[in-house]
């Protein structure tokens, strides 16, 4: 069950509870109980909570799932047009492009500023160890995507074949 359907279910229960409090408030006014005005506040607060949960469930969390993508970590992010992610050194070349598409979808934000550029660059790297005690970063590729549109059909994915060949050498 995803987060949006959970939030909509919670909104439904909060709405039911709000209606129950409203009925209880009407009964309190009919019977002229002393705490009837407090129930007006409780009912109003429950209505606000139910509406807020419903609003969150309508689309706060939009996440694109790319099949075949592996987990990555964000290493460097200027909050603008340049980011670097790292992938595990065991990544297969077939998973690399899917992971790059996933990162491009995840790292898009309408609040990013390009400082004169209208595209964002995401560099993908991994760390290999040629010998014990020595770490070497390998940049496997980069993605250039638009900063203006969420779904960029002109996204450029460039995989560096010589670096991928070097990675395969360390994988075996």
UniProtKB/TrEMBL annotation:
Q: Which residues cross the membrane?
A: 7-31, 37-61
Keyword Transmembrane assigned = yes
Keywords on record:
Membrane, Transmembrane, Transmembrane helix
Organism superkingdom: Bacteria
Protein name per UniProt: Ycf51 family protein
């Amino acid at each position: 069950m995803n987060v949006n359907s959970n939030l909509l279910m919670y909104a439904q229960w909060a709405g039911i509870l709000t209606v129950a409090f409203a009925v209880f408030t009407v009964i309190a006014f009919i019977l002229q109980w002393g705490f009837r005005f407090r129930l007006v506040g409780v009912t109003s607060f429950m209505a606000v909570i139910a509406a807020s949960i419903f609003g969150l469930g309508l689309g706060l969390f939009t996440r694109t799932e790319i099949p075949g993508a592996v987990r990555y970590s964000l290493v460097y992010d200027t909050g603008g047009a340049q980011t670097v992610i790292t992938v595990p050194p065991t990544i297969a070349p077939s998973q690399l492009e899917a992971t790059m598409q996933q990162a491009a979808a995840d790292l898009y934000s309408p609040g990013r500023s390009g400082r004169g550029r209208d595209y964002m660059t995401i560099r993908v790297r991994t760390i290999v160890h040629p010998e014990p005690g020595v770490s070497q970063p390998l940049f496997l590729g980069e993605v250039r995507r638009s900063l203006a549109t969420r779904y960029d059909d002109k996204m450029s994915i460039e995989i560096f074949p010589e670096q991928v060949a070097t990675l395969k050498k360390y994988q075996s």
